[in-house]
Amino acid sequence: MRRVLRFLLQVAMATFIALGSWALAQTGDYFQNYPGGFTRAAYQITSEELENPLTLTFQIEPEAGGQFTVTTTNRVTARRENLEAGVTSGVAQAQLIIQDEAVQALLENKRNLRPQASFILPGARFTSADRETIAGISVLCGMLTRSEKPAQRIFLAITEDSTLPFPPWIQQEEERSSGGMISSLRVCDSLAPLAQQSEKRYAILFQLELLDYERRE
User: Fold this and answer.
1) Across the chain, what does the average pLDDT equal?
2) Which of 25-39, 119-133, 195-209 is the least confident region?
3) What are the residue boundaries of the structural domains of the chain, listed by start?
4) How close are the terminal C-alpha atoms of the chain, in Å?
5) CA-to-CA distance for 117 and 134, rounded, in angstroms?
6) pTM of this prediction?
7) 41 DSSP β-pair partners
8) How far apart are CA 195 and CA 147, in angstroms?
9) Other CB atoms closer than 10 Å to residue 127's CB: what's the count?
10) Which end of the chain is more exposed for a tag (fewer CB within 10 A), N or C?
């Protein structure tokens, strides 16, 4: 029993460290630009390493004296032998995508993006579709392709909403002849024409999706 508890504690610590670094990598000056008020956002992370999706919740509560209480939680159900690799891998994969130079350039220039356009980025191209809504948030849907990884593509939903700590939707896919979760678009229907331009078979490597959003001034 002690061995099991020690193992679970190690898993929890590893997840906390990975989650903390992920949050820091994505938020940047997020808190400096935060408009105030209460925000709660629940995301779902799906990856090949996880049997079941991981749920990540990010909550900000205003306190007296201009202070804020920030709470992050994560929840996943998996076999004991898969917990450590699966949980940390899911969070780490999100961090790697967000830190990608092309993705960073997109997020930094999100106010200049427009529908039905193509944007040249460092070593990549972003092709936008239309504006849609995810969990009540207005987003611009698009597809990112990179010259150094021609067998992969990343679908993104980008928002100008400064209360969200992470993009509402990210889906990374890889060209495969068989195996894996077959490509599908749970959100961003306007991306279907772009996704169907290629006759190749794609499998989903990773997905981050905003499931629930609550906001109070």
Assistant:
1) 83
2) 25-39
3) 1-12+33-176+196-209
4) 46
5) 21
6) 0.83
7) 58, 213
8) 17
9) 16
10) N
